[in-house]
Design a protein that fits this description.
The chain is of the alpha+beta class. It has four domains: 38 residues, no CATH class; 42 residues, no CATH class; 46 residues; 56 residues, no CATH class. Helices cover 46% and strands 14% of the residues. It contains eight helices and eight strands. The strands form four sheets. It has a two-stranded antiparallel ribbon. The protein has a two-stranded antiparallel ribbon with strand order 3-4. The chain is elongated.
Length: 211
């Protein structure tokens, strides 16, 4: 399948056109990029700007960038833009949720990468440490639940001394993990030596309670 571009008049395959809701655009990708470059103007150097929504004179960093505008920034400030987006989401919450779930289902690898980057950023910013300090009750409840699960999943015949030795010999920057989680989603393992392994913190967080 091919189509003649309305701009350059060249017959090109449909893969050379950006998609629309119905079919593809009337001009090819190459011509559209050229048009975009023509409309992009060099931003003026300004320090402050009045938001057209709230009418407040704010620092230019309080506005999202938009290269095709004279000053290189949107007319609404970040706070107003976020508020408008939130209202739109609340108005179309059901359809937005369905779209998000469908995208996550069709792009599992991208979701994993996104979660990984988000967790790494939070870890670098000290988010988890700060959250733990501010939510000690939740942290203690989770730890108590884990200890209870460990007791229930520890058989009477287990060699506790061997398990203690395994924990003591844990290499630096590594963590002891249960191969089959004690609180698994579909299956739960025992707190025994053969169910233990060493993992890095990143690998352990990524594995979570899955098997």
């Amino acid at each position: 399948m091919s189509k003649i571009c309305n701009k350059c008049k060249v017959d090109k395959p449909l893969t050379e056109y950006y998609k629309r809701k119905k079919g593809v655009r009337h001009i090819c990708k190459a011509c559209q990029k050229i048009e975009a470059e023509i409309y992009i103007v060099k931003p003026k150097t300004i320090l402050k700007k009045v938001c057209t929504k709230c009418g407040i004179n704010k620092d230019i960093n309080e506005f999202f960038t938009q290269l095709n505008r004279a000053d290189g920034h949107r007319s609404n400030c970040k706070a107003c833009s976020k508020m408008a987006r939130h209202k739109s989401y609340e108005k179309h919450k059901e359809s937005e949720t369905k779209k998000a779930k469908l995208w996550q289902k069709n792009n599992p690898e991208k979701v994993k990468v996104s979660h990984r980057k988000s967790n790494q950023k939070r870890q670098a910013d000290g988010y988890f440490l700060e959250w733990s300090r501010e939510n000690k009750d939740k942290v203690n409840a989770t730890r108590a639940k884990y200890r209870a699960a460990k007791l229930k999943r520890t058989p009477k015949w287990v060699n506790l001394e061997a398990i203690k030795q395994f924990y003591r010999k844990c290499p630096k920057n590594m963590q002891v993990d249960h191969i089959i989680p004690l609180q698994g989603i579909t299956v739960s393992g025992f707190h025994v030596l053969t169910n233990l392994q060493y993992l890095t913190k990143t690998e352990n967080c990524r594995k979570s309670n899955k098997y």
